[in-house]
Amino acid sequence: MRRPVRRSIFRAGLGLVAATVLAAGSGAAVPALAADGDPLPVRITGENHVDLSLQGDNGDPAEPQITLRLAAPGSDEPGDDGEVPVAHQGRYRITIDAGGLAGVAQAKLPCTTSGATATCEGDRIHAGEKADVLGGIRLDIPAGGSPRRFGEITVTGEGEGVAFAPLHIQVVVSDSRIVSHELPAPGVGVGGTWGAPLGLRNAGRAPADGVVLRFRGTRGLNFPDSYGNCVYRHTTDGPLKDQGTDAICAVSGVYEAGAAYEVTEPLKVKTAAFALNDLFTYSFAPADAGQAKALPKTGGYTPGTGAPLTLRKLAGTPSGVYSSKGTAWLPQDNSYDILITGDSARGAVGDKVTVNVGFRNLGPAWVRGLEPPDDDPMLVYVALPPGTTATKIPEDCWAGRLDDGSDGYGCWAHTPVLEDANLTFPFELRIDKVVENAKGRIRMQPFDYPSEPDQDNNSAWIVLNAADDDGSTQGTTGGPSADPSPSAPGGPSADPSPGASGGDTSGSTGATGGDGPASSGGTSGGGLASTGAGGAVLLGGGALLALGLGAVLVVVVRRRSA
């Protein structure tokens, strides 16, 4: 198993960050403003759709169907002290308005309630998507049934220095129970089109008068057909995790209890040239098809223009599993290529020089996650050349002990990583002793990257005062032996002294704009983004803010949208 090993290494690295921050006495808080001074973007998350059954099969009455959380940029992986970093410090208020459920369902709300409204207040927001739980919402159908079938809960937020994205929760009441068929392995290659065999079964005791189909594809997927009874929303900005296409379809008809149905023709799902392990999901739910058309009037949806999507009844129930939704990852035959670049400089004793460590994705695929549904960040290890001390380090890097036991730095790149990502980590070094051809190795964290067949360019060198014909900074060319002597010319120190506690983290980070190729360690344009547990958020104009533990901060520029 690859993931448990990698996670243990990753958490150890995070512990180094927490220790460094605490040693500096700065706490784990990070600024609540984006790089351009805009408020910190925070999403209110939770289930956006709940189906309630008049048959009473609505789960444990003591358990909520909805759990509300706050999702801020950054990673919610705790350090060795068990603490998740703080992304914002300052008062905020979350308002839960369940007034739209009148006559539909009864809601038990968290926090401080007044009638159909509740407010939750706090003074800090942690990084990531898991740490800040506002509370749960329990929904039940009142005695005697529900005279209405549809309702909505709206959750909004306000606070100085924070921009909250609201959450709209649609509630549907039915006397049917609709489940969706599992999906087979797509078996489609990059650039190809897969016919997804969507299906449902009415597992309730009463027929369903119409159903609602919801399906979604992440940014590497699109849907060539446009159905007239569907509405579509194409998201091309904001967090990469949220980018892609969402669709809601109202399908009329009577769906008998115990019967199974499938789409008349498979739903076409096309993969982009950069797609790799993109996520496709779908689900059916009972609803009156006429009323269902009112559901997507908000949220940026536009109607389809073609013939309607239809379903047909099957003679029997197909083999396989039915559940609340179907899921597939596609394609799986694409690959990416991470290029690590180094840099070189010259100087005398006491001089301060800046060297740039580069991280670039040469494509053709983006890195949606290292392994579905994994969204762990990629790590870059940096060892300094002997005779140097770091006086400024990038805000997205931290000092500590590397996996080989030596001192150095870790720098992270959150996933998803765009297919043209280009990131620079600038280090300011003070030369304490002139060592001819002094080298420090840069490398990706050792890990089985299953979709990167060429890993020969995953390492590079920082070279100071290079000899005339031995100044290569790329790969293993000109590098030292596996276990060099610290004083041997041409090799890095086995125990470099990176200046963990003395390094200033005020140096600039990220990549500036530009479409040209990246030079070794340069700052040419590109894009790197993070979602999921990494919690990155793309801001207006394409800039990305990815906050990590302590003062970890990455700001990059995205060259193009999907």
TrEMBL record:
Classification lineage: Bacteria, Bacillati, Actinomycetota, Actinomycetes, Kitasatosporales
Gly residues bias spans: 500-516
Statement: the UniProt record of this protein carries the keyword Zinc-finger: no
Transmembrane found in the keyword field: yes
N-terminal signal peptide: 1-23
Biased composition (Low complexity): 472-499
Protein name: Gram-positive cocci surface proteins LPxTG domain-containing protein
Transmembrane segments: 536-557
Keywords linked to the UniProt accession: Membrane, Signal, Transmembrane, Transmembrane helix
Annotated stretches, region: Disordered: 468-527
InterPro entries named among the record's database cross-references: TAT_signal
